[in-house]
Amino acid sequence: MIKEKQLSDMKQAIVQGNKEKAEKLARQAIDENLDLIDVIENGFVPGIQKAGDLWEKGEYFLPELISSAECMKAVMVLLQPELKKKKLTAKSQGKVIIGTIEGDIHDIGKNLVSSMLSANGFDVIDLGADVKLQNFIKTAQQEKADLICVSSLLTTTMIKQKTLVELLKSKNLYRQFKVLVGGAPVNKKWAEDIGAHGYAENAMSATKLAKTLTQK
Amino acid sequence: MIKALRPQYKPLSEPLLKKILAESYELLEKYGVFVENKEAKKLLKQAGAQINEKENRVFIKQELVEKALSTSPSTVELYDRSGEQKYKVGGDNIHFDPGSAAVTVLDHKSKSQRKATTKDLVQFAKITDKLDNIDFQSTGIISSDVPEIIGDSYRLYIGLQYSEKPVVTGTFRVEGFKPMFDMLVAVRGSENNLRQKPLAIFDACPSPPLKWSNLTAQSLIDSARAGIPSELISMGMTGATSPVTLAGTLVQHTAENLSGLVICQLASKGSPVIFGGSPSSFDMRKGTTPMGAIETMMIDAAYAQIGKHLNLPTHAYMGLSDSKLNDNQAGLESGIGAVLAALAGINVISGPGMMDFESCQSLEKLVVDNEICGMAKRLIRGISQRDEPLALDLFKDITPETQFLSKPNTRKWYRQEHIFPDVIDRDTYDEWAGKGNKSISDRAADKIEEILKQPVSLIDSDIQKELKKVMLSDAKNNGLSTLPKVGSL
Fold first, then answer.
1. CB-CB: which of B142, B213, B237 is closest to A155?
2. I need a labelling partner for B361 at 20 to 30 A (CA). Which of A70, B100, B210, B319 fits?
3. CA angle B446, B450, B453 (to 5 degrees)
4. What is the pLDDT of residues A173-212, one digit of tens each?
5. Domains of chain A (ranges, CATH numbers)
6. What is the model's pLDDT at position A87?
7. In a mutagenesis test of the A interface, which of B110, B112, B113, B148 is the best target, namely the one with the most A β-carbons within 10 Å?
8. Confidence (pTM)
């Protein structure tokens, strides 16, 4: 039986972005042979949700939000192998392939989205920056992904988001994967024009959008 | 006669400046920079730099940087298209050019952004050409009616035809240098003439933190060998792609720029380099890069101070705004930026017309900013002694009825002591209302119409043919068989 105090400490550690403490609590949970699904869903996840709420309220800025997300990721790195051993799986929100498009090496925005998605229970495969269009598609097929998230900072590379959607259509894969686009020059209208399934202006709204899209 | 005091803004104390510089030397030596260009790595290796090939990481010793600094010219000369007007980019001389490179333009009527087309590029060049306080043109708008891949050469092609002013530009691809260089040579008549009278500055942006990509390093090398000034545009975002403290970002900024300067000097000793940048205070709530933030401007003025200390010409993106409209925010951010840049004595100030985080150009804002630039220029001319005595003689026959309007002294000096704005409102209320209660951007729009009716400073038709030939060949190589029609504008 997990004590309320333990769960609230877990939540608190994530909210505060205290990696050391969160990892310690995760290790403790493993040592004490606690129900790890319970630990994740009622301990750590409420923490990242709270951090998200605080960000939306304007109390948390990016450094706090990202350290909470990084903290969550660190906890999952410890807990995943244990879950595997016990043949358990934490509830996944869906599988996401993410990357900055070919020709573009700017990846800070993409990294923020990637962190937030994985902190919020998505199974994220981050292909990094300057990712070839074919690579997005190939990986999505191999991994049976739900979403493909494509970022571009430059207007010169933004156009390739359109090419990606066209490629998916030509390969008859457009209905199989949902495409989310983002990046400084990208906006909602652009996403609609090129036939992407969604556009998000920041890491939090990307997470929300990803959740609604995968629930459909 | 007592000369005017040049007002100055220097944000760094001497000890802090020296500390920043010392740490940036140490950064280059100890942690190095990433260089993804083969030729640049080869040059650095030959010069004795340690290289970790696997990581593309180059460790540069202070002596190598100092040697490069000793061959970098302190002043860069630019000439306009005709080759007659000369600009000295150095010392405390200031020059304004429109911010670059926008992907949208602000439509005055609908007050919303839209994609730019050739027509916008042409109008932008024509207007820049006629604005007195804008010294250089910039290839500041990317046209959506040509393929992105030739976006770099195409904007230069248009700019050279419709404005006489020297150009601030840059490449988007390694292959972009050749056609752009050929166009500049076409204007000057020969490579040597271009070297003698540079017509354009090429911007090259390292990727923060501490990386020279293949493209940007190649631009440095190609420009250095052609005698084209390279403007080093480091652009750390505080707390995101560079340290969060202003001084910390300055360490990275200085190291990035100095490593670029080393590449230039190794490619060609004595090649012109401008110590510039486009750093920003990263907004931790929005994840955006406000150019109108006061901290952005402080970083700009500070690295310019470092550049001056190193005896280099300087550049910054100042006098721009993050506003989406020509509103109070646009005016206040641009005004503060342009004034601080002038006070900091920055040689190339890129900003006018630019808004929305360097992504949108507004022609109306450009016209308004021209006035801001005029004010900034007046400010730094300062207050000097014009007469001996200063004023005493004017009071010789003083009576309570004395007025100064009709005095020859007034007539002699008023146009030199005072500047007269164009679109800034100084009407009485009734006069203003009588003209239709117009805002400054409405008046700027009227002014644009007026400017566009004026004759263009025409380019020699043989040169124009040559430019077209170069552009068409570049376009054809990239799958475009005809160029968009400029038509009647």
1. B142
2. B210
3. 145
4. 998 999 999 987 788 888 999 999 999 888 888 999 999 9
5. 4-85 (1.10.1240.10), 94-215 (3.40.50.280)
6. 87
7. B148
8. 0.90
